[in-house]
Batch of 2 targets.
Target 1
Amino acid sequence: MDKSELRKIVKKVKHDNQIFKQKSKLASLSNEIPPSLVGRSKQTKQLVRYLMSYEEGMVVPLVSVFGRSGSGKSSLVKFVCSNISDIEYCYVNFRKARTIFGCANLILGAMGHEPIQSAKGMNKVIDTIHDAIKHKMSESEKKLFVLILDEFDVIMYDRRGNPSDFVYKLIEMQSDLVEKNTPTSIITISNNVVGDYEFDDRVRSRIGSSEIFFTPFSKVEILDILEKRAEEAFEEKIDGRVLEDIADRCSDEHGDIRRAVELLRVSAELASIKKMPISERFVEIAAMRLEKDRLEETMETLSHKSKWVCFSLAALAFISGKEWHSTMHIFEYFRKMLPPGSTLISYRRVSDLLIDLQNTGVVSSSTTSEGRNGYSSKYRLNMNPETAGEMIHEDYWEIVKRQKEKQEVSKLFSKSDLKRAGLFNDVFFGK
Ligand SMILES: Nc1ncnc2c1ncn2[C@@H]1O[C@H](COP(=O)(O)OP(=O)(O)O)[C@@H](O)[C@H]1O
Ligand SMILES: [Mg+2]
């Protein structure tokens, strides 16, 4: 790499970006508060009602905003709090914290304070947050302080911390502030309703049931948002069919607006590299690419054995052309796939691993009645079997491909196949 080469690359990237007027409008993790919102009037009314009840002398301690990612929770909460003149707010996203103590320090940081060392204890942090809020409100004309805690679920992942205790201390702080004439409400934003998490009873009774559920966006709403975004982001008008296609794909799933915007951005990037207008073809390629990225992320989190159970299901689906396979079928394939001499894991264990895979969204299950024989579960891979197989083990997947060619569904890998692929027992059960 020399300077002239670098200049060429910069020139090319600049050229590729020409189709964008303001690419930042398509950034999926942008913190910008949208100037206006599409839909969501029900949730807006609920939130305003909860917040404004302080005027009647009834401060709601905690509002739990919940729903899937990309349903517009963060945007709406910020939009409401920043546009009501009586409200002063502090927005904190817990995403980057790894411990509950870290979350508490993020609040401090957002209030303009230095972090406090964990040796000083949680009480010290909470007291400092309390004082910062009190101080801020004593200097402000505003009447209600709102502490917004986004991605609140993070506190549940700290295995050594005590989420109940943290929430209890926050609520105590809130009621203390109210008593001292500093009306304060806390808004938590999470995937599940806060009441569903396992807090102890003293917390449960205090957090109440002020909940706001965000339904997934409908296709019409997604299309509406995309049209507005496209107008801001691109120099030229985007083909209506492209936006319609994206809205279709994203409302099929979970009404995830973030995914829709991401799909539009990646489609545009691909099209500009080819110096062509964005078309449905680019949307299709972009969708495949995003799915692959997402898959890679999920796969990285799976255990070694889970990956091979997943591989077995991928191979069965690929070879037979059928989507659904029973636990027994998957177990048998898994067992035959093992090189001689490997430690076998039990049917029960494979069945448990399939349930784990279902929880991560990699597979889906369906239970059917078998009459007198009770019930049986079948599983389906939620992704393209070839993509999954190749991602888990390219060489092994080659063997599966050859198997399919031979259509020898029952006769599995021969020893010479394994040797040729340079695979040994530890491929499956090492590490
Ligand atoms: N009602 C809405 N109207 C228009 N754009 C929206 C709306 N809700 C969210 N967005 C946009 O969609 C993106 C994702 O929304 P966000 O609020 O982060 O979702 P969530 O917090 O539920 O994951 C943001 O870029 C935001 O600007
Ligand atoms: Mg959010």
Target 2
Amino acid sequence: MANVIEESKSSRATCRTCRQKIDKGVLRFGEETPNQFNEGEVSYFWHHLTCAAGKKPLLVREALTAFTGTVPDRPALEALLSNAKPKAAAGERPYPFAERASTGRSKCMQCDEAIEKGALRVAIEREVDTGTFVRKGPGYLHSTCAKEHTGDAELLAKVKKNTPELTPVDVEELTKALS
Ligand SMILES: [Zn+2]
Ligand SMILES: [Zn+2]
């Protein structure tokens, strides 16, 4: 499947994302789709480039590498693409956040002891050096070790902001541990 980015040749297409007309001359993103009337031929689902960037960032990024023309407001498009990322990858959220450990396998980065299953732990971003490249992933801390490890006076506020689903009991426990 090859998707395209091109200048709209007419103003007949309608954006599949926002349902508005795509004006002639503006950049549009075409998602290749098999033509249901002529087998072997393809047709496109068209989107405004900016609409597609918010909805299908990975596909747009891919098409963008093959696009040789000029994107009028490239920084704005790049911003749209990177902001769209957390939604595209489910489960991704900003660090630090808090959660109940789903297993007893994680180890605290501060005290090196295992974090018990069901215990409230704080996840922070950690760089893992695999030998060939550096990967970013979560590092875990006992809630009681988190403040010492990060030295961050704002830690509690940040965790609360990034973890809106915490229960009042969790928040109370965290507040005690982090202050
Ligand atoms: Zn649109
Ligand atoms: Zn610890």
